[in-house]
Amino acid sequence: MHSKKIIAHRGVPTLAPENTMAAFEKLTDFNINWLETDLGITKDRRVVVLHDDDLDRTTSLSGALTETTYPNLAKASAGAWFGSEYAQETVPTLEQLITFLNRTKINVNIELKAVTGDHANELADSLVAQFVAALDQIDPSIRVIVSSFSPVMLYKLKSRKADVETAVLFEQHTFYDDWLLIMQALDAKIIHPEDHGLTKAKVTMMKDHGYEINVWTVDKIDKANQLFNWGVDGIFTNIADAFPGMQKQSGK
Ligand code: G3P
Ligand code: MG
Predict the structure, then answer these.
(1) Ligand 2 centroid vs 39 CA: distance in angstroms?
(2) Gap between the Cα atoms of 67 and 33, Å rounded
(3) DSSP label at 30?
(4) Which ligand approaches the C-alpha of residue 169 most closely?
(5) 36 Cα nearest atom in ligand 1
C-alpha cells in the first residue's frame, strides 16, 4: 500500500459515473483506501452526493439542486449520461455514503459544497447540522477529513463540532498571502491547494507552518511523484486505479 494518500476523486470516475455508488464500489476492486466526494442539499433539505450546483451535467434532470425536491431527484438517473449500463444509478444520499464507508472502512474526504440561492444560509445550516449528526454514525476506524472552498461552510461546521479534521481548499487564483490568516481563522490543520501554480517553495512554506497538504487534482503519476518528493502528503486523482500498488493480485 502506498505510504502517501492516493485519494480517489469522486470514486473512480473513468470506470463508472462520478459520485455514484457504482463509482464508489469500484474502489473495492483495487487497493484504494481513500475516497473524495462532494455533498449538497435539496430544496426539501435532503443531503446528497453531488458535485455541481445544478443537475444538468450528471443527471437526467436539469436545474439547481436547491430547487429540486428529493422525491423528484430520486427518480432521476445519475448514470445514463456515462453509459446505458449505469442508467439505474441514482444520486446517493448521505446515508448511502455512510453505509458504504462503514462496510468498506475506506477513509474519506467529504467536501461540503457552498450553498447558493435565496435560502443559502438556511440550507447551509441544515446541511451542516445533518452532516454533524451523521459523523457520529461513521465507524471510528475511518479517518474523515472535511473540506470546503467555502469559509462559510467550514465556519458553520467548526461552530457545531470543533474536533472535526478540516481542510481549506484553495484554487490557484484564490491562494494569496492571506492564506495563513484564512487557515488560522478557520482553525484548519490541513490545506488542499490546486496543483496548477503550486511550487516546491509554496509546499515548503505550508509545511514550515505544520500543515498536512493534499493537492487536487493530479492525473499524472509523474506529477504526483514530484509533489510527494516536495513533501505533499496526498493527492486527489481521477486515476487512483492506475497508481502503482493499486491492482489487486489474483488469488488474494
Ligand atoms: O476536493 C478536491 C477537489 O474535489 C476539489 O474540487 O471541484 O473537484 O470538487 P472539485
Ligand atoms: Mg470535490
Answers:
(1) 9
(2) 34
(3) B
(4) 1
(5) 1
Q: Which protein residues are within 6 Å of ligand 1, measured from CB?
A: 9, 36, 38, 51, 111, 147, 169, 192, 216-217, 236
N- to C-terminal Cα separation, the chain:
14
Which element (helix H / strand E) includes 208?
Answer: helix 200-208
Convert 137-175 to b/e letters by CB count within 10 Å (16 or more is b): ebeeebeebbbbbbebbbbbbbeebeebebbbbbeeeeb
User: Residue 217 Cα, ligand 1 centroid: separation in angstroms?
Assistant: 7
| CA geometry: angle 138, 142, 143, nearest 5 deg | 110
Domains of the chain listed by start with CATH number? 5-242 (3.20.20.190)
Q: Report the C-alpha gap between 46 and 69 in whole angstroms.
A: 8
Phi, psi of 6 (to 5 degrees): -105, 105
pLDDT tens digit sequence for 58-107: 999 999 999 999 999 999 999 999 999 999 999 999 999 999 999 999 99
Q: Which residues of the chain have pLDDT under 70?
A: 1-2, 251-252
Closest ligand 1 atom to Cα of 147:
1
Backbone dihedral angles phi then psi of residue 213, each to the nearest 5 degrees: -125, 120
37 C-alpha vs ligand 2 centroid, how far in Å?
6
User: Using one digit for the tens of pLDDT, what is the confidence trace for 3-15?
Assistant: 899 999 999 999 9
Pocket test for ligand 1, best of 194, 196, 217 (most atoms within 8 A of CB): 217
Whether ipTM > 0.95 holds is: yes
